[in-house]
## 1
Amino acid sequence: MDGIPVKRSQVFTTELVLPNDTNQLGNLLGGRLMHWIDIAAAIAAQRHCGRVCVTASVDELNFLTPIKLGEIVTLQASVNRAFRSSMEVGVVVTAHVLAENVMRRANNAYLTFVAIDDQGKPVPVPPIVPETEDEKRRYEEALVRRELRLRHRQPSSQ
């Protein structure tokens, strides 16, 4: 199976934080952001393998700063590494205050997706070909995170 460059899976989405997206403090609801992240990551996974993909895990989701009503949210997702039937997708979220022309990183997340066939069974996915130094770093770090995920899935011996 031939490898696929990371750039083929990249997704950029933009959302505007509206009143219905916020809590009583005027901050973007965490659940709404998680929904946006899941969608962007799913599209990246599906772009990579050309199949329907399902969320298997969200192993890291860091809320770095609140996102306020009226801010523009950009989500950048791409496959960091492909394994047998699973892929780690990284998502970086930035918030943009138009009036001040200031952008800041607001969130980052790592999700695992599994490619499935028409019967819902996992199927193999093509490997990733990292090209840039950043892609190579994310590729290597994805293996470390996968090993941690697999360790956490094992039953404890207590």
## 2
Amino acid sequence: MDIEDYVYFEENFLDPKTLKKLNKYIVNDIEWEKARVVAIGKGKNELNEKLRKVQSKFITNVGDEKATSIFWYNFMRFRLLKFTQKYYEKVNPYHRAICPILEMNVLKYEKNNFFTPHVDYHRTTPRNLSYIFSLNDDYEGGQLTFHFKKDQKKTLKLNKNSCVIFPSNFLFTHHVNPVTEGERYVIVSWMP
């Protein structure tokens, strides 16, 4: 297998009716805040809009979350775990280590928003798999670019209702190009 084969897609991830309801929740119910980045060696995350400029909202199924957020977290968690099973069948049918706990973050990239090259695994946030679910595609820019080797890049414009999964480690450095028109909505998630 080539390294690019570890980046796996599924189109039509949700049925259209469910996607419409999920988008309604995201547009109407999310209370956005500026996204932070992992501050290496500082023990906390920091706001750094030179590295990452995007609106964010973590959702979970614990604490004082609204019932709607809890529902969508649990629904997407179930769907992503099923997707993980398909992924392992494709890339390594002998690997069965699936952790049911997922971090989930809804992101809103407005015009000129971006995320510079990074990896999703850090000492303070150990992650094994990364997911990006695209809620819409009616925007310009905002492509996802992987940096596999010095001269080997792969740039993707994710279609609406598609999901991508890939390892979170240093071999899968990636970035999000600036959005030039419209707004890009995605749900990103990670499996420890």
